[in-house]
Amino acid sequence: MASSSFHFLSLAMLVIVSTLWVEYAGVSAQCELSIPRLVSQCSEYVQVSGPEIPPSKGCCDVVENLDIPCLCKYVTPEVEKLVSMEKVVFVAKSCGLTVQPGTKCGSFVVPPHA
Ranges for the Bifunctional inhibitor/plant lipid transfer protein/seed storage helical domain (predicted)? Predict the structure, then answer.
């Protein structure tokens, strides 16, 4: 049951991100190319339900090359229902990225202690 729930969540994230991808055709090339890889490699680490799980090397390989400001512009309330922004920060930091307090991604603002 948990496995099918996870697959549904992954599919839902893919549909939402793909919709955003098509809707915002002006997104930078790096941002466009990152979205499918980000979903396939990292979705299990940022889903709303469940504990924080250290990301895989495959996820970190994608995260290390992201255009964060570009992607954050397209985080909608619908995406935030599926993706824990706190876990996104956890994954980014686990992958060695510096996450600046005050950074805004969708409606989420990185807190001072992050």
Answer: 11-105
Q: How far is CA 48 from CA 29, 45, 98, 102, in A?
A: 28, 9, 22, 21
Assess contact for 44 and 76: CB atoms under 8 A.
no
In a 3-state reduction of DSSP, which class is residue 98?
Answer: coil
**Residues 32, 45: Cα–Cα separation, whole Å:** 21
Q: In 3D, which of 46, 49, 28 has the Cα closest to residue 38? A: 46
Helix (H) or strand (E) holding 23: helix 2-23
Residue of 23, 50, 20, 26 whose CA lies nearest to 38: 20
Cβ atoms of 54 and 94 within 8 Å: the answer is: yes
pTM passes above 0.70:
yes
- Model confidence over 49-93: pLDDT tens digits? 999 999 999 999 999 888 888 888 878 999 899 999 999 999 999
Greatest CA span in the chain, whole angstroms? 39
